[in-house]
Amino acid sequence: MSSTLLDAAAATATVLVPSPATESVVKADPPIVEIARLLYSSSGYAFSFAGRLLSAAGQFFLSLAQLLVAPLAFILSVLLYLLAPVIVFFQILLDAVIFIPYTIAVAALQNLYPIYVFVGASLLFSAVIALGARALVSGIRSVLFPQWDASNPAKSRSMKRVSIKEEK
């Protein structure tokens, strides 16, 4: 039964002729999309090539640096052996003039810091007590002696002029 249907379908083949109104337009991608696809597919190759190129350049410069540093290391070791007494002298001088006095000063200041804090706190506390006592005395004086004014002190007696006569 299925073969007769296929034979009938083959015998009556239909051909569709598209009309201009129903014709579907195949849209082509814009050129930027084609360029982006090309760049995306070639970027893997470009990055691989750049990595290999940088690796080869790094190996070249590393071997060049090793060739140049080997004689310099030999010259530097000889120079350091020759300058060793001068270097040791300046290390001792630097210790004696700068590092040891600095260490002593830091240790002394660390040990004196509690005394500094105690003296500072006691001075501040005594200033507060003194100002409080002065305010208290002024208050008591103004209550007990309201007519007394501290701005006009009592006049002091003037000294009498003493003359000394010479004897003849």
Number of helices: 2
Helix/strand order, N-terminal first? HH
Number of strands: 0
Work out the helicity level: over 70%
The outline comes out as elongated
User: N-to-C terminal Cα separation, in Å?
Assistant: 180 Å
Largest sheet: none
Overall mean pLDDT stands at 84
Strand content: under 5%
Low-pLDDT segments, ≥5 res: none
Structural class: mainly alpha
- Rg to the nearest angstrom? 54 Å
Keywords: Membrane, Transmembrane, Transmembrane helix
Transmembrane segments: 60-82, 89-109, 115-137
Outline of the structure:
Keywords: Membrane, Transmembrane, Transmembrane helix. The chain crosses the membrane at residues 60-82, 89-109, 115-137. The chain is mainly α and 168 residues long.
Describe the model.
- The protein is an all-alpha fold.
- It has a domain at 30-144.
- The chain is built from 2 helices and no strands.
- The protein has helices spanning 2-11, 31-144.
- The longest helix is centred in the middle third of the chain and has 114 residues, at 31-144.
- The radius of gyration is 54 Å and the shape is elongated.
- The protein starts with a helix and ends in a 24-residue tail after the last helix.
